[in-house]
Design brief:
Layout lengths: L1 E6 L19 E2 L2 E2 L1 H8 L9 E6 L3 H7 L9 E6 L5 H7 L9 E5 L2 E3 L3 H10 L4 E7 L7 E5 L5 E6 L10 E9 L1 H4 L10 H12 L3 E5 L4 E3 L3 H12 L20 E2 L4 E2 L4 E3 L2 E2 L4 E2 L4 E3 L2 E2 L4 E2 L4 E3 L2 E2 L4 E2 L4 E3 L2 E2 L4 E2 L4 E2 L1
Parallel strand pairs: 1-4, 1-6, 4-5, 8-12, 14-17, 15-18, 16-19, 17-20, 18-21, 19-22, 20-23, 21-24, 22-25, 23-26, 24-27, 25-28
Antiparallel strand pairs: 2-3, 6-11, 7-13, 8-11, 9-10
Helix pairs in contact: 3-6
Bound molecules: guanosine-5'-diphosphate-alpha-D-mannose and magnesium ion.
The site of guanosine-5'-diphosphate-alpha-D-mannose (GDD) has 26 residues, from strand 1, helix 3 and strand 11.
Length: 338
């Protein structure tokens, strides 16, 4: 069995965080994101060794370096690097020679605790050519909206539809089970979109396409607000099955502080994540934020509802609010940033 993680996007909406760290490995609760996706595949690994194809394009080497083969529990990595981004379907086509059965595809930025085993069982029972995992959301604008009939067969797929186009609330969760014949509909060697180009072809082909609505936790981590939320949800246990496993403990204020971080004096860290080798000085306050490794929050500085990139320096008594700071940012003493 094979899985493919679409991990080639530029992560534009998460800049500057993703300038030097591609989205699939940005840390969530101090753990590279992709590990949460690999955890979902482990229960399926019992069927025989699972190949995990990593479809890479943006900063591929960083993703390969971040992966620890020991964390794979017998699964095998197959990195495939695109010289040019091939789009979400072109990337799948590019891996066709490795695929010999049902292929599980993940968008490389969805955090979920779904159990894929019953989804796979239903996919097989229905003899589906493709099953799309769906999730119901209130605001569908940022997603692909899917209309189903009573049997769960897909009638329409509308990528990021204009408001009022459809009343459907089920969106594409970015997890697909695909049979090999689906890949035959994708042209070779050209940029091709799963959502805009392949899906209309699939509907025309009359292949059996099903939606499988999940009640599991689900979040696309691809914007700063949702990235902070993903961290919070892992810390407060909303994402079942993923207690932070780094050996560090969640504090009574709902925070996770890497053990290698130094705390000088009295500080306040509330609903926040602090990465490795940081320095928090007397009177520092970090609230609802994610502070990545190697960052210093100097005396009396306050960081609120923000993301602070690696190796940054928040000067004494500075006030940072609602900010997304890239790696090596410097905030001068006493300055305000909102
Ligand atoms: N290998 C490769 N090559 N991967 C790519 C490429 C490419 O050219 N372009 C995008 N990707 C990867 C991204 O890294 C990401 O993991 C995934 O494909 C989806 O791209 P996004 O840019 O995050 O898409 P989106 O969030 O706007 O919309 C998609 O996800 C929604 C759910 O979060 C769509 O699939 C929607 O239909 C869906 O609802
Ligand atoms: Mg996305």
């Amino acid at each position: 069995m094979q899985a493919l993680i679409l991990a080639g996007g530029k992560g534009t909406r998460l800049r500057p965080l993703t300038l030097h760290t591609p989205k699939p490995i940005v840390p969530i609760a101090n753990r590279p994101f992709i590990y949460y996706q690999l955890d979902l595949l482990k229960p399926l690994n019992s069927e025989g060794a699972m190949d995990v194809i990593l479809s890479l394009s943006y900063q591929p080497r960083k993703i390969e370096e971040a992966l620890n083969p020991d964390a794979l529990g017998g699964m095998r990595f197959v990195p495939i690097v695109e010289a040019q981004p091939l789009g979400t379907a072109g990337a799948i086509k590019n891996a066709q020679s490795f695929v010999n059965g049902t292929l599980i595809v993940f968008n490389g930025d969805v955090l979920t605790d779904i159990d894929l085993r019953p989804v796979l069982a239903r996919h097989r029972q229905r003899k589906a050519a493709a099953t799309l995992v769906l999730v119901d959301v209130e605001d569908t604008r940022a997603y692909g909206v899917v209309e189903l009939n009573e049997e769960g067969r897909i009638q329409r797929f509308l990528e990021k539809p204009a408001p009022g186009t459809t009343k459907a609330k089920s969106i594409n969760a970015g997890i697909y089970l695909l049979e090999p014949e689906v890949l035959d509909l994708i042209p070779t060697g050209v940029e091709f979109s799963f959502e805009y180009e392949l899906f209309p072809r699939l509907l025309e082909s009359k292949m059996p396409l099903y939606g499988d609505i999940t009640q599991a936790y689900w979040l696309d981590i691809g914007t700063p607000e949702r990235y902070r939320q993903a961290n919070r949800d892992v810390l407060n246990g909303t994402v079942r099955r993923f207690p932070p496993g780094s050996g560090a403990q969640v504090t009574e204020h709902g925070s996770l502080i890497d053990p290698s971080t130094t705390i000088k004096g009295k500080v306040e860290v509330i609903r926040s994540v602090i990465g490795s080798n940081c320095l928090l000085e007397e009177g520092a306050q970090v609230v609802d934020s994610v502070v990545l490794s190697g960052t210093r929050v100097a005396e009396g500085a306050r960081v609120d509802s923000s993301i602070v990139g690696r190796g940054s320096h928040i000067g004494a008594n500075a006030d940072v609010k609602n900010a997304v700071l890239g790696d090596k940012s410097g905030i001068t003493d006493f300055s305000t940033m909102m």
